[in-house]
Amino acid sequence: MQKPTDLVEYETMLLGRHRPMLSSGxxxxxxxxxxxxxxxxxxxxxxxxxxxxRLSEAFGLDxxxxxxxxxxxxxxxxxxxxxxxxxxxARKFRLTTEGAHRLDECRDEIVQGLDKVMxxxxxxxxxxxxxxxxxxxxxxxxxxxxxxxxx
Length: 151
Prior knowledge:
One of its GO terms (molecular function) is DNA-binding transcription factor activity. InterPro entries: ArsR-like_HTH, HTH_MarR-typ, MarR/SlyA-like, WH-like_DNA-bd_sf, WH_DNA-bd_sf. This protein is mainly α. It has a single domain (4-144), classed as Winged helix-like DNA-binding domain superfamily/Winged helix DNA-binding domain (Arc Repressor Mutant, subunit A, Orthogonal Bundle). Helices cover 60% and strands 8% of the residues. The chain has six helices and four strands. The strands form two sheets. A two-stranded antiparallel sheet has the order 1-2. Strands 3-4 form a two-stranded antiparallel ribbon. Strand 1 (29-30) and strand 2 (33-34) form a beta hairpin. The longest helix is centred in the last third of the chain and has 22 residues, at 123-144. It is globular, with a radius of gyration of 17 Å.
């Protein structure tokens, strides 16, 4: 007999499979940005300028991994290194105008894909689904000790 969590596991596996439908780019991309870039840029946008150390803590990844990712984003003109506005020694990363523009474009493309998928859903069903997704994510964040800031 299947438990409800068996069904959740299966459906979340399928959700990852459907990601390409929500954007026009290759499977490794979300709306034209690499998945990791999309997530890093989203985090910097919502939290503001961040150091490598803070990014590493936020994602639970090694600083060398974040160094490679942020270096690629700087080279692409999507992030820039700035002095710490609070006077600290470490330099921080912030979104460039181009980075914000590309992030907006990607997010718009994803939302358009979601609009197509949920075209026949009522506004109440979409809101309920969003509420359950938020609850699911915040419970994972609570257990991992790495909350994600929300607007």
